[in-house]
Amino acid sequence: MIPHLKSMTQAEIGDVLKQLGQPAFRAKQVYTWLHKGVRSYDEMTNLPKALRDILAEKYPICPPEVIRRQQSQKDGTIKYLWRLSDGNCVETVLMRYHYGNTVCISTEVGCRMGCAFCASTLGGLVRRLEPYEMLDQVLFTQVDSGLPIGHIVLMGIGEPLDNYDNVMRFLELVNSPDGMNISMRHISLSTCGLVPGIDRLAQEKLQLTLSVSLHAPTDEIRNTIMPVNKAYPTEELLEACRRYYATTGRRISFEYAMINGVNDTPEAAKILLKRLKGMGAHMNLIPLNHVEESPLKPSTRQAVQTFQKILEEGGIPATVRRTLGGDIDASCGQLRRNYTKQISQTR
Ligand code: SAH
Question: For a Cys-Cys bond, which of 179, 187, 282, 293 suits 208, CB 3.0-4.6 Å?
């Protein structure tokens, strides 16, 4: 496997350079250039040519290529489909919120969690992303769009806690002062509910926001749409969330995709109220994005409003997520899915 300098910390790059006989100050130079999104070592103009050549040979930069760029005419959302150096592709979405530009990045090529409503999981897991491949999505979205990125959500393709070590390294890099220096408070990590991962994350004591994709009030319902629930049933998951809140003091945000006739009844809202009490929960209600291969349909506007009202009146803040980029396949995995389908049809 090729070693990637962009997955290394500044100290690790320092070790590499030391072995090449370089002075200590070069580590910061190389690190800073890499984290500016250069595509070639020749752009590192303050490095000697000989060093640039050695680095290019031993540590190729391998930046992703844009395969598709789609911009929403309605809200300015831009969606990127990237080709990685091994030919696989992943997607990134840039959203323009009032508080700043936010990128939604992928953490894996495909996903093995099997959620019934999600396009990302249809072809299973291909492989996990390296730290630099997550960083590149943020970096090159910023470079390509010319828009400064201040916020990140790990809500694209893949399950971040199923790629734990690489995701932790990515967070360290993107947060580093000589790198993009993006505040942990501006980062959200979303999980389908891998309990051991949540417990491990609690110990890291990061200031990020943990989002948990709950999507159902009971095991009975959750089992039908999220296979992960068989391994970590709702009560175990909620216990882990309570431990997380107790350990970190950080409120948890729950994602809830509203699916017509499945999880959107007033009874479901009432059960949630009981189960989520006292844990600083915040609910994000997301009208389901319809995925062609799935029979599941979004809830009616009326059902969403009633659901929200019950939660709010019961003391759980609930926001209905504005859907951005609806006109450009901008939800989880749809662009990659449509692209790979198209490719296989033309072969
Ligand atoms: N694997 C992680 C993060 C990626 S998915 C997780 O499960 O949380 C990001 C969010 O989008 C999750 O809440 C996921 O359940 C949700 N999602 C996936 N497909 C969706 C769809 N078709 N409509 C609405 N939300 C969807």
Answer: 187
